[in-house]
Amino acid sequence: MTKAAPTPTDRFAPFADDAAARTIGGLSVENGTGRIAVHGSLDITRDKAGLAQARLLRETCEAIVRALEEADLPEAVAQAPDDPPRRVANPFA
Asked: Among 66, 29, 20, 25, which residue's Cα sits nearest to residue 43?
């Protein structure tokens, strides 16, 4: 059984929000206003479904590059320190 080819119905706007995500096969591209996270793996098969996945991956990468090229970028983004643990009320008490 072949997998259905992905359709780029979702318009992924890089760095536009902290909620959007695009999934291509087993690969997730998670949007953020300060960084984009890429997780998973993607097998691009030599068929029409693989071609569709490759095109969607290319479209996603090109959109990210365009957004970066159009921005006034700093040399590097400062790493946020890990938030210290905090005590919260027990919701079951």
From this structure: 25
